[in-house]
Specification:
Strand order of the largest sheet: 4-3-5-6
Helix content: 40-55%
Number of domains: 1
Number of helices: 5
Shape: elongated
CATH superfamily: Glutaredoxin
CATH topology: Glutaredoxin
CATH architecture: 3-Layer(aba) Sandwich
Order of helices and strands: HEEEHHEHEEH
Low-confidence stretches: 25-46
Radius of gyration: 19 Å
């Protein structure tokens, strides 16, 4: 009887962990809601929609926690390099804004809430007609092992928003 109880607890624990992982995966893949339009936006490709006006300003924000993994650090480094090297005039003029934001700090709570950032994530917010168009870019995580491909992808994406 003792073995049966142990097996039952182990199986239930495994099922609980699997359910938690699956539920979290579904939550992470849900589209991010735009702060100003309350409509969902999902990043599929760096293609600019046909009727989209050029952005007045583009915010490139990397949200992270205090404890950072090597991938999160690399994404921050690559994103910063991309903006600084390929968009220096726009960065200087304020048309593009790049920030790394620690979501664990109380002073960043409102910004993290606005972007719905709960962990490490790269968000791009083209502001068009004074309205936010916040999008989480999950593709960058697949490019973290290839710096040149990452920089090329992010450069193309930002150029299409300008």
């Amino acid at each position: 009887m003792k073995k049966f109880t142990i097996y039952a607890v182990v199986i239930l624990s495994i099922l609980f962990v699997a359910f938690a992982i699956l539920s979290r995966g579904k939550k992470e893949n849900q589209p991010v809601m735009s702060a100003s339009t309350s409509t969902s936006k999902e990043v599929k490709s760096p293609e600019k929609p046909k009727n989209l006006k050029p952005a007045e300003k583009i915010q490139v924000f990397l949200f992270h926690s205090t404890q950072r993994c090597p991938s999160c650090i690399a994404i921050g480094k690559f994103a910063k390099e991309t903006v600084e090297q390929n968009f220096a005039p726009e960065l200087k003029s304020g048309k593009i804004e790049f920030k790394e934001i620690n979501i664990d700090l109380p002073e960043n709570e409102a910004l993290a809430s606005k972007f719905q950032a709960t962990g490490s994530a790269l968000f791009i917010n083209p502001i068009i007609d004074g309205k936010d168009n916040i999008e989480e870019d999950t593709r960058v995580w697949r490019l973290v092992s290839n710096e040149q491909e990452f920089i090329s992808y992010l450069t193309d994406k930002i150029k299409k928003l300008l």
